[in-house]
Amino acid sequence: MSKLKFLSNSPRFLFFTGKGGVGKTSLACAAAISLADSGLRVLLVSTDPASNVGQVFGIAIGNNITLIPNVPRLSALEIDPQAAAQAYRDKIVSPVRGVLPDSVVKSIEEQLSGACTTEIASFDEFTGLLVDSNLTADYDHIVFDTAPTGHTIRLLQLPGAWNDFLEEGKGDASCLGPLAGLEKQHSQYKSAVDSLADPKRSRLILVARAQKTALREAARTHEELAAIGLTKQFLVINGLLPQAETVHDDLAIAIFHREQKALEAMPAILNQLPCDRINLKPFNLVGLSALRQLLIDDELFDSTKGMESIHHAISFPTLASLTDEMTKDGCGLIMLMGKGGVGKTTLAASLAVSIAKRGFSVHLTTSDPAAHLHETLSGAMSNLVVDRIDPHVETERYRQRVLQSKGAKLDAQAKALLEEDLRSPCTEEIAVFQAFSRIIREAGKKFVIMDTAPTGHTLLLLDATGAYHREIIKQMDQSITHYTTPMMQLQNPKQTKILIVTLAEATPVMEAANLQGDLRRAGIEPWAWVINNSIAAATVRSPLLCQRAGNELAEIERVATQHAKRYAVVPLLADEPIGIEKLLQIMQ
Q1: C-alpha to C-alpha distance for 5 and 28, rounded to whole angstroms
Q2: Residue 488, Cβ neighbours under 10 Å: how many?
Q3: pLDDT grade, residue 225 (50/70/90)?
Q4: Which residues are catalytic?
Q5: Whole-angstrom Cα distance, residue 483 to residue 471?
């Protein structure tokens, strides 16, 4: 049916994963359309907390199976984490309501209110689609568009993690609520992972860009999935600039050579996988027409013929001007948020070195497990501290602190129960939140710049921040009038400046607007938007890049007039911004 390896003789389940921003959603949607157009019945499922499948098709989908207009035999479903969590809570709490004392029921509900439960509930729905034949009997193929890599790996490792915990006994675990459901679902979770590991039933497709960090992330993902038995994988290198576009265009030449160099240095483990390469397209991948063209051989169409062959750089507000304004108070928290793959890590590093060069003390950190801050900086500055919130390190630090404090006066049996409690996977959620809270407190004395994880995971962290805030307020002595919680600090624009990072493309802008809506509902007002890697802000002669530059103008205008109170545009650069000097060039 298709020349593409990842679609050839495809099994029933197709599972797209990879670093944020590499094109998983576009490829999953295009693959689902291709299968449906061939006469097969297809269900497209998004497991991303920040799903934009509905936006790609231009319709509302949500947590119900929805027919896709003008594509016979194709339906779609977006697993809504909040709806899944509520359904999961109801399933556990309803049988004991009116049976157990109200205080016990309330305690269980509180234990089920955190981000840990949200993750588990989403995975509960996902595994149901894999193993419950009644749910998917009407479909020949199920195509999964997953969350960014780290989140996906975390979910797939849940069965093993919970298995270890359950087998050792839960004692008086703080995760009593989630465990009540997980113990019953354990066999379903194991069956789901077994299904994914069977190449006759499932195909895992790693999606990457021709970039060092994206390819290294793909290699790490391959190894982590292989470690839990998911060894049969395919690789798709997406968004390659064709060599034909490099004629008389210095920027296109630089991009082409950068991509080819990254492919030549691709981790050896990836060279062993069946691989497809898909070229960059001149159009935005929104709507059926664009999605149908994504997987077509480029020789079959050329939408750039007859186009004007030069686009002159347009002047926009700069990141340097935003930095001037942000540094007026001499300290504060600057958080960069947005979809994966939009360049948050690079921009966070650029801001850090720029502010440090001005003589300020700066702490640059990340909550993104896939971030590479040290590699991006490739150097050191005397007044710049760089680290990351490592979930494994923070969890162990938290465990030891609790054992030394709470466990110091316990007898052997009680201490054993406490240790069992601390082996719960939910302990990581608490530990990461405490690390986040500890870091943002520093912002009263220096600049703290945080590169956050992709949108969905960041929202889970903010959910934990909000839950902590509500608990503090509830327990607060009414005589105390002056206090500050982490959520209050995030809500104070004098203390915290949120920068939403996006690309000048329809889907990233829509997702950034959704993120802004979520933040506002939490009482957090974004301070500015940054549009990164803009071709419209550069001079290009490649017909393909000229068309993409023209496409960007409407999105930049939309950000400037509809979404942002203030904004900056960072041009696409010929040199990859690695190292302090190149990072400073972003500010020019």
Answers
A1: 14
A2: 16
A3: confident
A4: 21, 23-26, 48, 507
A5: 13
Q: What is the DSSP string of 551-572?
A: HHHHHHHHIIIII-SSEEEEEP
User: Which residues, 6+ apart, have CB-to-CB distance to 338 below 8 Å?
Assistant: 344, 454, 455, 500, 501, 502, 508, 511, 512, 515
The dihedrals phi and psi of 570, each to the nearest 5 degrees, come to -105, 120
Per-residue model confidence (pLDDT) at position 379: 78
- In the block, tokens 């054992």 appear at 403
If we measure between CA atoms, which residue out of 46, 109, 53, 54 comes closest to residue 81?
46
Q: pLDDT tens digits, residue range 388-421?
A: 887 778 888 888 887 887 777 777 777 776 776 6
Q: Tell me: the pLDDT tens digits for 484-519?
A: 566 677 778 888 899 999 999 988 898 889 888 888
Q: Show the tokens assigned to 353.
A: 């070195």
Does residue 164 have a pLDDT over 70?
no
Q: Is a pLDDT exceeding 60 seen at residue 173?
A: no
Residue ranges with strand state E in 389-495: 447-451
3-class DSSP state of 237:
strand
Cα–Cα distance list, 502 to 237, 338, 342, 459, 532 (Å):
22, 6, 6, 16, 6
Residue-level pLDDT at 44? 92
Q: Residue 254 and residue 4: Cα distance in Å, rounded?
A: 28
Helices (H), 38-136: 53-57, 81-93, 102-111, 115-131, 133-136
The contacts found for 558-562 with CB under 8 angstroms, 24 or more apart, are: 558/509, 559/502, 559/504, 559/509, 559/512, 559/529, 559/531, 562/513
Cα–Cα–Cα angle for 143, 149, 153, rounded to 5 degrees: 90
- The residue among 262, 296, 264 whose CA lies nearest residue 281 is 296
Looking at the predicted structure, is the pLDDT value of residue 41 above 60? Answer: yes
* Average pLDDT of the segment spanning 8-32: 88
Residue type present at position 164: D
Q: State the DSSP code for 303.
A: T
Beta bridge pairs of residue 276: 236
pLDDT per position as a tens digit, 93-143: 777 788 777 777 776 676 666 556 666 676 777 777 777 777 778 899 999
Rank 111-125, 138-152, 520-534 by mean pLDDT and report only the highest.
520-534
Instruction: Report which of 201, 272, 198, 208 is spatially closest to residue 239, judged by C-alpha positions.
Output: 208
The CA distance from 97 to 102, in Å, is: 8
The C-alpha R_g of the chain, in whole angstroms, comes to 24
Contact assessment for residue 332 and residue 447, using Cβ atoms and an 8 Å cutoff: yes
Residue 122 CB partners (closer than 8 Å, separation 6+): 47, 49, 79, 81, 84, 85, 155
Question: Between 506-521 and 543-558, two packed helices, what is the crossing angle to 10 degrees?
Answer: 20
- Judged by DSSP in three states, 206 sits in strand
Closest alpha carbon to 511 in 25, 19, 13, 11: 25
Cα–Cα distances in angstroms (integers) from residue 363 to residues 93, 366, 449, in the given order: 43, 10, 6
